[in-house]
Each structure stands twice: as C-alpha cells, then as structure tokens.
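A reminder from the course coordinator: this example appears on the midterm review sheet, so study it carefully.

Given structure:
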C-alpha cells in the first residue's frame, strides 16, 4: 500500500514537472501553436498599430526613415534594360523606327515604370528605382498630355469604318497603359510616404482621370473594362486626397471641387455625407458643394425629377461623377410616372419626358421607355401603365450617355484641360 502511494506520488510529480516544462516552453514559443502565438501578439497594442500602419496607404509627412527616390527619369535604367532585353516594352514605349524589329528598342523619354506586385526577396525601396515627387508629377502629366489625350488613330472609343472597333484596341493601348502606370506612381508615393503640394497634384489628376474613365467606358464589356477595379483605385486615391486636405496645412485651392466630386460619385453614402457635413461652413456653402448636397438630398428622398433637373447645372466632370447613378434615377422616374399616370387614355409627350429624363435626344427617351415595356406611339408620346412597367433584363439596356462628347468637338486638349483642373462649362445629358 505504501509502495503504490509512493509510486503514484512520483508519477504525479513527474507529470507536474513535465507540464511545467511545457508551460515554460510555451512561454518561449516552443510549444504554443502558431495560431496562438499570432493571436497573443496581435493583442499587443503596439503590434496592432504597426500592422495597421503598414497596410494602409500613408499620406503623412515623410519621416527620416522613409526611403528617398533618386531616379530622375520616368523609368529606372535597370527596369528599362530588363524590359528591353525581355521584349516587354509597350507600343507607346518603343523607339521610333524600331517598332517592326524583332526586339524593339526602348525610348528613354517615353518609357514609364510599370506596376509590379510586391514579392518575397524583392527590394522595392532602393533609392535608384524610386522616383521623387517632382518626377512622379512629371510622369502623370506625360500620361495625361501624351497618352490619354493624344491625337491620332488611337481614340478612346470610336468605330473605324465598319470593319472593327478601334476601342477594343484602344482600351489595351490607352486605358490599360495609363491605369497601370498611374498605379506604379501611387506605389512609389506609398513607399516614400509622399505628401505636400506635389502629392496633392498627383492625386487630383488621378481622381479626375479615373472619374472620366468611369463615364467614358461604362458601356464596354468586362473583358475590356472592369468598373469595380477602376472604382477601387478611384476610391483609394480619393480617400488619400481627403486625408491630405484634412491633415496638411493649406491653402487647398481645389478642395471644394473634390468634396463635391466625392459626394456626387458616392451618392447616398452616409459616410461621405457625414464627412461633408463636418466641413467648415465656408466649404459647405460653396456653390459646388451646396449643389452636390442638394442632389444628394433629392437622391435620398427618392425624388428623381428634382435630381435630374439639378443635374443639368453640373459641370462636365461633375456629370461624369454622377453618371453611374443616372440609370437608377431614370428608372425611378419612369416607375413613379407609370403609377401616377397609369391610364390608357393618357398620352404623355415624349419630348417633355426626354427633358425630365435629362436627355437631349427624344429617340433615346423612346428607347428607354421601350426597354421598360412602356408603349411609345409614333415616337411622339408614351402611354404609362403600372402593370406594364417591367424591369429590363441585365445588359439589355445600354448606357445612353454621349460617350464621345469630347471626340465630337475634335479638341483633345479640352480633355487634358479638364484633367489638369481647368473647368469646362458644358452640360452633359
């Protein structure tokens, strides 16, 4: 009996000692599972703050620890040589006269650093591969003036005869090229924590160009243009720009413009509306912001007639920002009229309806009514019916906006002026 108790005590003692060793080892990371180690580390406030700081694009003033770019060209020499040797140059980057060669040469004045995803073992902070803010701004201006608004046989979207659509080629040559190079510019800005006037100028031009692209390409198939990707990068740039306005000392000469664009593009967003209401009274009462808030109020109140009437007062770029909400507003207007004027004996003038829908072309108004199964007689009047109103099939109703509003005037410099911040007093249906 005493022997068994003694053996049990020794066994318990060994078990206790073994548990203590495991506990001690776990405290050093030897026995605790990796998930437990990770969760314990994430509970530390300083680690959690550092993780958030690394994952969010920074617009804070550059710290002494931030890398400083020394590359004075739009593309680092190392990348230019690598892409030339691997035949990875874009058509816009090849040296004139070598386009048909088996291995075209790079034009140092036209080659732009492309975006590359961060990878393990790849150092993206080398000073000779980073462009300083002044060079980044010069790169953005080159992309706007020489690529996005360049004259010649590569317009944004235009049918060449009846053989093929040049826009299919153009999206690859113009939009994709500009979008990728702008993404590379923002990547260099994030690494260097770029701020100040150059940083704001870059972000402002980026936002304007992406807003215009969201209007210009909205009717294109997904294989040519993905609105979600464009929207993601537009929202990131817009959020970063708003942070610059809030944290950096002024004056911010374009803040009124971009506060209005943010509100129009994110119509109905409670977060953006709250941010706007917290602005100083001077900004809230400015004409652009006040008009954007009135349109936002009409949208929240489901008053499409007032919204579309106010939309005619917008500038060209503001209309581009509002454009993605226009289809829903027009649909709401037709639904309201279909219930309020539902009668076989009621004939509503199609021309008047086109004015209410903010459309300059009566034929487009008739097309919109037919898409919702409303009767249109002799392209002169429409018969509303609450039982006949039907939601159109997805993809059947194409955008009715004038995507070639700039091309019709044969003035590509006008688009460049818009993106650089020169106002264009033109109403857009």
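Designed residues:
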């Amino acid at each position: 009996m005493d022997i068994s108790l003694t053996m049990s005590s020794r066994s318990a003692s060994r078990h206790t000692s073994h548990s203590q060793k495991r506990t001690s080892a776990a405290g050093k990371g030897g026995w605790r599972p990796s998930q437990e180690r990770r969760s314990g580390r994430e509970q530390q406030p300083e680690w959690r703050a550092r993780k958030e700081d690394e994952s969010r694009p920074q617009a804070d003033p550059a710290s002494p620890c931030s890398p400083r770019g020394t590359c004075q060209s739009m593309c680092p020499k190392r990348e230019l040589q690598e892409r030339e040797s691997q035949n990875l140059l874009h058509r816009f980057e090849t040296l004139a006269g070598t386009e048909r060669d088996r291995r075209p040469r790079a034009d140092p004045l036209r080659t732009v650093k492309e975006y590359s995803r961060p990878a393990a073992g790849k150092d993206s902070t080398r000073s000779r591969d980073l462009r300083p803010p002044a060079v980044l701004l010069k790169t953005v201006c080159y992309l706007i003036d020489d690529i996005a608004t360049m004259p010649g046989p590569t317009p944004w979207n235009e049918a060449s005869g009846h053989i093929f659509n040049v826009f299919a080629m153009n999206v690859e040559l113009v939009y994709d090229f500009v979008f990728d190079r702008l993404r590379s510019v923002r990547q260099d800005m994030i690494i260097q924590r770029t701020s100040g006037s150059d940083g704001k100028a870059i972000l402002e031009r980026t936002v304007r160009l992406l807003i215009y692209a969201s209007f210009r390409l909205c009717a294109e198939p997904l294989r040519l243009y993905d609105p979600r990707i464009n929207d993601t990068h537009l929202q990131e740039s817009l959020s970063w720009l708003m942070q610059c306005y809030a944290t950096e000392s002024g004056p911010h000469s374009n803040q009124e413009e971009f506060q209005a664009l943010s509100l129009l593009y994110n119509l109905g967003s409670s977060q953006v509306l709250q941010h706007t209401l917290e602005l100083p009274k001077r900004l809230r009462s400015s004409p652009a912001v006040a008009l954007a808030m009135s349109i936002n109020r009409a949208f929240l109140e489901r008053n499409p007639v007032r919204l579309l009437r106010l939309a005619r007062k917008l500038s060209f770029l503001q209309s581009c920002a509002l454009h993605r909400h226009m289809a829903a507003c027009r649909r709401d207007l037709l639904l309201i009229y279909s219930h309020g004027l539902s009668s076989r004996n009621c004939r509503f003038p199609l021309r008047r309806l086109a004015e209410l829908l903010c459309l300059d072309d009566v034929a487009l108004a008739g097309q919109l009514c037919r898409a919702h199964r409303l009767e249109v007689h002799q392209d002169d009047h429409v018969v509303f019916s609450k039982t006949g109103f039907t939601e159109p099939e997805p993809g059947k109703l194409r955008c009715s906006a004038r995507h070639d509003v700039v091309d019709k005037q044969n003035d590509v410099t006008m688009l460049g002026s818009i993106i650089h911040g020169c106002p264009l007093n033109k109403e857009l249906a």
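The radius of gyration is 29 Å. The mean pLDDT is 79.
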